[in-house]
UniProtKB/TrEMBL annotation, chains A, B:
Homodimer. Residues 59-354 form the Aminotransferase class I/classII large domain. It comes from Schleiferilactobacillus perolens DSM 12744. Its cofactor is pyridoxal 5'-phosphate. This is HTH containing DNA-binding domain and MocR-like aminotransferase. InterPro entries: Aminotransferase_I/II_large (IPR004839), Class-I_PLP-dep_aminotransf (IPR050859), PyrdxlP-dep_Trfase (IPR015424), PyrdxlP-dep_Trfase_major (IPR015421), PyrdxlP-dep_Trfase_small (IPR015422). Belongs to the class-I pyridoxal-phosphate-dependent aminotransferase family. Keywords: Aminotransferase, DNA-binding, Pyridoxal phosphate, Transferase.
Length: 404, 404
């Protein structure tokens, strides 16, 4: 090609460097805390195999044909009941099933974002969401994260100063920080969204993986003006290989998303939706969730304990109440991306997601996201020991005075 | 919402009216020639069920976990062999598996199209492709179709006068006209693409459904400058419910599409890809294709014969050598969309896709796409009889002089 042929978004995506981070995980010696992988030991493989088998034997369903592009009605009904029991009144008509919550993020952005439109994201945020948003050329506004969620003063300042179309937030066990948005902030977020006429995209794939503390109401359950679209996924609670998630919201949103899904991929695989409905009808998801919570809590405890014990001076880690990730804070000036690439992955065989990949502005370098669900506890401990040892050489030299 | 919240593309998609056409097919009395549905009687339901069962019993594959987002390597290898045997040299690395070819269309547009970029499409063309392209705000250039494919003089004129990034074409049994691009035009298209430095997106889901005549080389096999990206699908040759298609092309294209797929939906369901690989290893796809060709040819013959016999004066139908569709040409001034909505669907219970939905400009109203694969032959005959009868009242009055 003589001319520059790629679209702007393609060049930016190539430069975001996430592919580099995952490329590292082709190394089989590697201990990877980078991905958001669930523990494969916990997948209900036999039950799911049986659920697929059933899908093919109920011939009246014709699982191999095209179907309604909102997804299998029976699964939407089962899901609506579960969401309602979780405190968010939902009917089957309020739901569209998607290729994981990832596709729902993509379709909501496609529905709302004209080039240049204002889009608020938490800083840091889920890099996959940025990958979806980038396709529609938004103007990003980054809102810093506090321990109890998005900073509301910073949010209000942005909403006052700029035209914003959508706020993207992960209120439960945020990806990447693990933070839970407090009830007061949830209420304030809804108030601000109403005042400034903004759509809220609530992404909550980890909500049902709370290890301790009390569940808080979803943003959608606090919504009185039909401006919250809420996303969930079977990826973290059943299996990511299903590629099955959902968007819930008022009719006007679901109708528009369904129309746009025609252009994206027509519809999700009916076979999978029937199989998941079969699984949920024949098995006890709550018992399965209880098992996941217990095992993931013990993995999180093991990772946090190992970090607290071994991290050098100046590095800290938080201790989330659920989800998949802990957040490692390094001293100012330590570039966690640069040292991972140059030293920690090649020499120690450990990978994580460096913070600069988690900001649209790529400005913050001294932090990292660590996943605790994908590896077993001995491997977690071995990986954290290697990582902590490697980080010693990047710890700030403590002045003698401070030691006295 | 106080302000206009939807993106421009969402409003346009809602106005395209395709949803209306399909909504009609909720009527169970309806005889629908609208969709691109394969014959469900021909799905290898038992074999595919067994292939899914096998996917779950080969535990080493871990089908429920995240995997490589280019898709299951073994299936890419099988497919590469098949494409090579069909005359297009392809390696497994040249392939990315997608959610049907539909997602591949979406991702290629995402990869290339900045807002305003020039995009050539055949006129008429596949409306689902327009649904994908619209998300990236291209400037469309419509090239009229001849009986042997895109008009090359019109194409050259456009390429001379405008900056064009991509040409989208369906060379084999075009959707909607059924036309096959001649070898001379294929060669000329490649020559023009080279001369004007344009990417070619070759969409060919019907290629292996030729009923008569000689197969022509793919555009990708004629490409010498790595500017053709070629798409295919298991939807029409195995089953659409699999939602499995592919894009093939040089490394720079496949790498970029894989990066963008992260934002769209991370990856396609591994379970399905393993099941299809199992199906292809354990069954004879060529024998299956031979059956499809035989039955679809007889359906096409039945539809064309019924139309030729019953269509009123001034209406004509073509007789394609393969694929899923025939093209009905009405006299000038007959609005096939308007009469379908007002009369033919409500009164006769027959649906099709009116031509205005098949042009980005929505300018041509006097034609329609009819699918012949979805219904059985008695239903095709009944539907065409009803349709032809209804069209009588829209036939032009023939002047007495012409009758003498």
């Amino acid at each position: 090609m003589k001319k520059e042929i790629f679209a702007k978004r393609t060049i930016e995506a190539a430069q975001a460097g996430i592919a580099d981070a995952f490329a590292a995980s082709n190394n089989t010696e590697l201990i990877s805390f980078a991905g958001g992988f669930p523990d494969a030991q916990l997948f209900p493989n036999d039950e799911m195999g049986e659920s697929f088998r059933q899908a093919f034997t109920e011939n009246s369903l014709n699982v191999l044909q095209y179907h309604d592009n909102r997804g299998y009605a029976k699964l939407r009904q089962i899901l609506a009941k579960r969401l309602t029991a979780d405190g968010t009144n939902t009917s089957a008509d309020d739901i569209i099933l998607t290729q994981g919550a990832q596709q729902a993020i993509d379709l909501v952005a496609r529905m709302l974002i004209n080039p240049g439109d204002g889009l608020v994201v938490e800083a840091p945020t889920y890099f996959g969401a940025l990958g979806a948003f980038d396709a529609y050329d938004p103007t990003y506004y980054e809102i810093p994260m506090d321990a109890d969620g998005m900073n509301m003063h910073a949010l209000q300042k942005v909403l006052m100063a700029h035209s914003v179309k959508m706020i993207y937030t992960i209120p439960d066990f945020q990806n990447p920080t693990g933070a839970v948005m407090s009830l007061a902030k949830r209420q304030e977020l809804i108030r601000l969204a109403n005042q400034y006429d903004v759509v809220v995209l609530e992404d909550s794939p980890y909500r049902w993986l709370r290890f301790s503390g009390k569940q808080l109401p979803t943003l959608r359950s606090l919504d009185t003006e039909d401006r919250v679209i809420s996303l969930g996924s079977f990826s973290k609670i059943l299996a990511p290989g299903l590629r099955l998630g959902w968007a819930t919201g008022g009719q006007k949103w679901i109708d528009a998303i369904a129309t746009l899904k025609n252009g994206a991929d027509l519809e999700s695989p009916f076979i999978t939706m029937v199989a998941v409905a079969n699984y949920l009808s024949n098995n006890d998801l709550d018992a399965h969730l209880a098992t996941l919570r217990k095992i993931y809590a013990s993995k999180k405890d093991a990772m946090v304990a190992a970090l607290q014990e071994n991290l050098p001076n100046g590095f800290t880690v938080n201790n989330p109440q659920g989800g998949f990730f802990v957040w490692l804070q390094a001293p100012a000036g330590v570039d966690m991306g640069q040292i991972m690439k140059a030293d920690i992955t090649p020499n120690e065989g450990v990978a994580y997601i460096p913070s600069q990949n988690l900001y649209p502005s790529k400005t913050v370098c001294n932090a990292a996201r660590l996943n605790f669900t994908g590896e077993d506890i001995p491997t977690i401990q071995k990986g954290i020991a290697r990582l902590s040892k490697a980080l010693q050489k990047y710890a700030p030299v403590v002045p003698a005075a401070a030691l006295s």
